[in-house]
Amino acid sequence: MGWIQDLVDPKSRRWEEFYRNRWQHDTVVRSTHGVNCTGGCSWAVYVKDGIVTWEMQQTDYPLLEKGLPPYEPRGCQRGISASWYVYSPIRVKYPYIRGPLLDFWRKAKAQHSNPVEAWGSLVQDEQKRKRWQRARGKGGFRRTTWNEVLELVAASTLYTAKKWGPDRIFGFAPIPAMSFVSYAGGSRFLQLIGAVNMSFYDWYADLPNAFPEVWGDQTDVCESADWYNSNYIVSIAANLNMTRTPDVHFISEARTNGSKFVVISPDFSQVAKFSDMWIPVKAGQDTALWMAVNHVILKEFHHDRKVPYFDKYVKQYTDAPMLVELSGDATNGYTAGQLLRANRLAHYAGVENGEWKMLMMDQQSGAPKMPKGTVGFRWGEKGKWNLKLEDGLDDSKIDPVLSFLDKHDEVLKVGFYEFASKQQMLRGVPVRYVETAKGRVPVATVFDLYMAHYGVDRGLPGDYAKSFDDLGPFTPAWQEQYTGIGRETVTRFAREFARNAELTGGRSMCITGASLNHWYSNGLAYRGPINAMLFTGCCGVNGGGMNHYVGQEKLAPQAPWATIAFALDWTKPPRRQQSPTWHYVNSSQWRYEGDFTEYAAVPPNAKFAKGHAMDIERDAVTRGWMPHYPQFDRNPLDFVREAQAAGAKDDQAIIKSAVDQLKSGKLKFSVDDPDAEENWPRLWIIWRGNAIMSSAKGHEFFLRHYLGTHDNAIAEERAQGKTKKVIFREPAPRGKMDLVIDINFRMDTSALYSDIVLPTAMWYEKNDLNSTDLHSFIHVLGAAVPPVWESRSDWDVFKAFAKAVSDMAPLAFPEPVKDLVAFPLMHDTPDEIAQPQVLDWTANECEAIPGKTMPHLRVVTRDYANVYNRYITLGPGARTDGMSANGVQIHTEKFYDELLQNPVAVSPDPRHMRCVEWNGQKYPSLEDALDACNTILHFSPETNGEVSHTAFEHESEVTGLPLTKLAEDTRGVRMTFFDLTRQTRRLLTSPCWSGETNNGRAYSAWTMNIDNLIPFRTVTGREQLYIDHPWYIDFGEHFASYKPKLDPHKTGDIRLSPVDDKSLILNYITPHGKWHIHSTYYDNLRMLTLSRGIEPCWINDKDAARIGIVDNQWVEVYNDNGVMVTRAAVSARVQPGTCMIYHAPERTISMPKSQVRGGRRAGGHNSLTRTRINPLQLAGGYGQFTYGFNYWGPIGIMTRDSHAVVRALEKLEW
Amino acid sequence: MDIRAQVSMVFHLDKCIGCHTCSIACKNIWTDRKGTEYMWWNNVETKPGTGYPTTWEDQEKYKGGWVKDGDKLRLRLQGRTEGLGNIFFNPNLPTIDDYYEPWTYQYDELFNAPEGDDQPTARPISLITGKPMDIEAGPNWDDDLGGSPIYASNDVNLEKLTDHEREQLNEVERLVFFYLPRICNHCLNPSCVGACPSGAIYKRGEDGIVLISQEKCRAWRMCVSGCPYKKTYYNWSTGKSEKCILCYPRLETGQAPACFHSCVGRIRYLGLLLYDADRIQETALADEANLVQAQRDIIQDPFDPLIIAAAQANGITTQQISAAQNSPTYKFVKKWGTALPLHPEFRTLPQLFYVPPMLPVLGKMKDGIYDSSAVEGMGQMLNSLEKARIPVRYMASLFSAGNEEIIKEVYRKNIAVRLYKRAQRVKDITAEEVQQALAIGKTTPEECEAIFNLTSLPTMEERFVIPAMAREEAIEQSLDPYTHKPAAGFGYREAPARRF
Questions:
Q1: Which of A274-283, A906-915, B84-93 has the lowest average pLDDT?
Q2: Same domain, B327 and B391
Q3: What is the pLDDT of residues A585-602, one digit of tens each?
Q4: Which of A202, A59, A519, A628 has its CA nearest to residue B254?
Q5: pTM (2 d.p.)
Q6: Contact yes or no for A67 and B457 at CB 8 A
Q7: Which of A485, A1090, A1142 should we substitute to test contact with B (largest number of B Cβ atoms within 10 Å)?
Q8: C-beta of residue B145 within 8 angstroms of C-beta of residue B177
């Protein structure tokens, strides 16, 4: 091998300097990506010659406890391509306005010296308004200046507030956790002017409704390191490689450590590669599989053999031993109703909140007892809201009876409705009788009812399955017809799962992703596996539990952040809107469907579960279950002024006037007539997100009804005559929005379709904070370079908005004005015990009482001239009202006063905090994003040990439990922004969250509850297997159950679209993709190069062959909602009958024209979807079923239930 | 005995998630320039699949690597009588279509399109012609396309399978894919070096990194043809070939190469091996079935005093020897034998080794109902070589020149590690079952612990044991470091460019 010599000769090697020089750089700055991905990865951004060149992952995360693999490096292919954006050709460098609007505005300005009037003159001119609306999305942008835009923004804001009301102004930005302060800037501005923030987590269908249902919590999950603690991991409809890219290593590392990994997924997905066993369940049929799993677990681990660990767990931490009242008779069978309430019994007749305290049968006394910890204790006397098995009246011990099988008064036949076969099964349930004020009533335990519900044969009479091969519900044999998975596999899987939990004390885990949550019956899809884990004691255990990772929902320092973000330091309550219901109503999508029961399964003879979802939504608003803005058909500022003029002396009188007028019909809820001009949303500000494409379910309807530009929907309107309460106006209004402003660093679809595009700082150009649920660290976005060209940070953009509005305020509002704010019954407040029954004051079923039977009404003052001053200072409310998160209240006086010690200083500083003075008063500064970051860190129990200790003190009083010990060891810890630029820091244990993290313990949801007996924020205070809200009983979802997958012929996606033998109707699935985070990075050349330059439509090889499609061929994918054109990716790994287009492509990139829709530019993935709501999820006024922003309500579901036609594109046309 | 030091690599494919973060880390730093657009020094392929450039493994087509010709090696590129006399003839070069035509988009349309009656969109345009183009290929074209009738089915390695086995890979019972990240193998017997008529390619003495001198390269492109892994690339702008440099500027400063650092699946390991350069020829000439073992044999025990003495005699420093002793790659490749070379039959003695992936057990389909055919018994719940989704023969085609027994040994050992660890944590595996697995896997509890530790728990520092590069000594040969220090960065010379 003579010629292969190692070379050491220095001269020949001098050229090596070439590559060495490239590697050299000038500075490295810590930052991250403000993108909705859950990664929360800390990055090193390299700067050379003052230019951002590339990024690499930071590798300085503190280690967790010994034996856990390290986190680092964290960061994925998308994150590492971010530097491409900074100077890229898609970067928004300057402010832009579309030509027609700019011309009109300049002319109007010339004619009107008052810019507010100038804006008025434009929007009142319908021809002009239509003109700029029609131009939306069709080119014609012109570069303008910040000053010109700011004047227009201020004028339109003030005009709209004065003419229609501030609740006609809306702002949307997703997921604050990805950049806390960037979100907070916009929301703070909006709340200070009385405008509305739109929710996101539910709108994305990321909110797992089952979490509020079962745990009374928005979502809480383990950090990814805790996966490693599990010995049996099941991935359900999740694709960890795609979406949890920096975390997947924990799976392979756990596998090497002997953990089993099972993947349940219709396609052979990227994560299936890791599995020991892949279960190719049919798309959308997971629930059936889990019903059978639960059948096996209950039979073999709770009946044939008792597992002490499981038995103890369900008694203490779940509602399994609670008593359910049965009603009915022997002939027709009994039905399971609500939980029996303590005040029904003579013994507990006089207890406080007795209507909201439940009962268990006590083994020793043989009598019902009233355990502590139920919701009645939460909002009553202090110190009894805990999970000790003690009677709330006399503190006596309770030994709960789980089942009456061994000792019962009678066996009654109880009816269980099975939705797939539409059959009522009658099954014997052992009952005891209890004496109540209204006589003797039969009661059963939740446990016994579940045994019957699952059809587990315990020798009782009725329709029970005799074996696992019995085809009756819900056996392993039964599920085969839906899932396509053999009974042996399911039985084996159930046994392994439960046995593992038995041997490890609950270390069996499920990981779920968006795909499971995007089906219509999403709650049931989750309650199946949750039931399995509750019956096997896996929740609240490290290495166990239900872990739903969808959306970076965990903004760890929630309490101070919320105070700043919603301007609670200056004015309460905020206006916060539930987005799915809002878009369903305001984008007029409700008009395109009939009764929801056309496609949704409900029990026979339902009282509530019927009619048009729009009417039910209206009821939910009037009952105070859901928010809806605009509130009323009148400007709330005008209303207050007129009420005062009519003699209302104080706030109470104004509110009374509103109630009276609502009752008389003189004042109407906007939701009663959403298409009337006075009820339209008018201004829409979008920042940090892609509201018009990526998340816009029913994108084409957005274009039609919000924007008034061209669209490709052909769906027919079907609601006429179907709505009984809500007015159906003809014709449907097109173009409700006067003005759409997009604040962006890329020219994405939302920017392209907006009237104004403002350049914002990219993630490497601003200071901000970031956290996630996938790990337990907090870290920063840092400015590696200043905002490039004319861009500004979001905080500074909205500060400029605030300044412009304040400066112009004298032209519209020379004095502070009063505003009437309506808002719903809220979670984590005494509203949780407002409505034991479902009653309608508009139908005279009860009195109209604000905050009880209808929305709260509150009068607040808007001071437009001081919006700017308030924006830049932390107001006194932050001191007097304290701060709160997830139901935990924190006293803040001393922490606020600490800040007042800081000097009034000019320059922002990452270490030093400062004050601002205005009107002779000194306040803590929020002038700069650095101030806002440090203020959050200062007040947060997660980053200030003393705050955590203070909060635990308060929690100890509330629960009567010794909890401050959890904060002792970290009491002295403080963090500043500067500290976080040096190293990512681990979050402290905080009562605002449910996991304990001391000494490097991996965060896992509910471990603090389980270890310390802290109740869950539910009606029963326990993890709820059974949901007794009358609404749920009526909809048949009081039990975890199986409802059939929606029939595509009934959902109406394909009524008018052409289908022939060259096309196929396929279930249209849009999982998260590999090359983008939602639509971010979709237009990034790096990602487009590593994919196919486009997001293809994945189709099964045999399906493709049937319609003559080959790999990479252009295809049209369409239905009545719209059309998308892309290319095919053909593979056997896709399940037949389905097609996948990974969420979320942009129609700005490489999108040809559609042939089936007449040669118009085709749309994006959301052109094929539509917003519908599941009215079950409107339930409110009751325990955990009370409203919380991004916590509760219908989600933007049914993306997975969509079907589309796929065919070859006939002609490629650009 | 001629003991030398080689920086070597292990990629643990069981951990690879196919995210391509590695590819972009590399691209951002090294190949984001004119002439390098199509280059991916680091790329990740879906297997079964055809890869980048397409079907690169097919040496019938590309003629890369060495062939055994009696008791001699020769470049496949050259017939018996050909050689340096025939350098103008290079018919086996991949064309741009074998790679892909790089593209961008008309992004400016979105800002500048005049108002029209429809929405503007950014069409793809060629980075070669500047004109609108149809994208028909890319550097990762068959990504995740397991079960593709065009790509997965045309994987060269499937030739060893029966027709029935090949068809099954498109059925739900056996459908499977996994990822194969690839960089330059920095071979001990690099055919690129052998093929270069200009003497521009060399192995660095201190670490064995293979480099193409941007000074000496004369654009023959024989390295492109000669490399069987197609890991050298021609820069059409500078007229020089370029390839992975194992981020030597980072290694020289104690940092792992960018693709290693950024590997978020934590699959990568880097460490020093000591090998006997006198044995390169005999190793490369081993029979196919023995190639893997021969490659293990050429690696020397860094604790052996004789080897240490020989190494020191060759100028290998104490720090380097210490690095070799701590080397994670030595453990995977030599001590445990669980990391294998990619296509050893190319006879270049690649220094990048792969731990083959565990894949889900196969299933059975009957009357439309799928059952997983997991072997019975809780103790056997984890995995099974016998019921693996992909035939052992396929893995053997990739990693052992067809020797199936070597593949089986690796899997048996790795399965034993899992069972041993599970038995520790969960009492659902009997001691007998564990003993049996250890015996079959030819391993011990101590070895299982060690394999587990380095697979599951390592920090960055444990995965990348970067030898000290003695930079002051290297620089000293041309310039006193005291003089070099104030001049560092001012440079010797200009960037590579066409000079003809």
A1: B84-93
A2: no
A3: 999 999 999 999 999 999
A4: A59
A5: 0.97
A6: yes
A7: A1090
A8: yes
